[in-house]
Amino acid sequence: MELRQLRYFVAIAEHGAFSKAADKVFVAQSALSHQLAQLEDELGVQLLLRTRRGVELTEPGRVFLAHAISILRQTEDARSSVRSALGEPSGKVVFGIPHSVSNALALPLLQAVRQRLPKVELELTEELTGNLIPQLRTGVLNLAVLFDDGHLDEFTTLALLSERLSLIGSTQSPALRVAKSITLKKALALPLILPADPHGVRPTIEAAARKRAYPPPHVVADISSISILRTTLLAGMGHTLLPVMPLRADLDAGTLKAIPVVLPTLQRVVSLCASKHIPISTAATAVAQLTHQLVHDLCKEGAWVDASPIEGNTTGFTIAGRTAKT
């Protein structure tokens, strides 16, 4: 198996056609087909199907694609780390962010990387947390922000902040019109619109209900998209339990209202994660360090509302021979 075969296979999968892939990798289409055939012979499976619409991945092809992307990315990370070992960090870093964190972190992180790490190419991908985990596990992502629900042992983690959850809904909701806060038990009994299990805050909410022997949340709709969730809340179809940042614009405009959940307070821990088994590049190390400091600053400045930085983290988020500064 050769790296060029992996590059060719990924190009075909991404472009859905041999002709477009051949142009992308600058080889003849016949050479592309020959290398793919050799790769399939070595693996003993068919990776691609030719159809009238182009090329489609087989099930083994979908499995192999994640590994091929990971291998190629690690190869490039190794090159970048060696080149920048004695100088400024450089190279590409693929960073996964959940939908409910993107509004708070994405733009400030892009701006900070551009300003402080000019030779680093940051690629942000916004996904459901349940989708980020397998991508981080296989190396498709270098870093990802995940919610620590006690099941992140397979990753190296650095706790960034603790974020309070609120009950959010239409300003016309009777439960929100006058109250300044609401107990968890009462909130769980309201018609709720929550991310589908196991995404986002859903595990945190259900664990809190089980711990106190409360009935499970009264979920009227499973919606994992922030934009769709927003429209359903504005339409008065129910409430949600979330931090305020994903819906801050509507809350500031007065079209939605939020009140804190109490007895107990609901919180989620936001952590920065990396694979324990895949070496991480110098560039990713620098981005991890920058992210930790940036989140701390956003919390202290009040830009990340209802969030508190987790201080004194000395657990040792060690990557590429360095430890993220705390």
UniProtKB/TrEMBL annotation:
One of its GO terms (molecular function) is DNA binding. It comes from the Bacteria. It holds the Pfam family LysR_substrate. Keywords: Activator, DNA-binding, Transcription, Transcription regulation. Gene3D superfamilies: 3.40.190.290, Winged helix-like DNA-binding domain superfamily/Winged helix DNA-binding domain. Residues 1-58 form the HTH lysR-type domain. One of its GO terms (biological process) is regulation of DNA-templated transcription initiation. InterPro entries: LysR_HTH_N (IPR000847), LysR_subst-bd (IPR005119), WH-like_DNA-bd_sf (IPR036388), WH_DNA-bd_sf (IPR036390). The keyword Cell cycle does not apply. Belongs to the LysR transcriptional regulatory family. This is LysR family transcriptional regulator. It comes from Rhodoferax aquaticus.
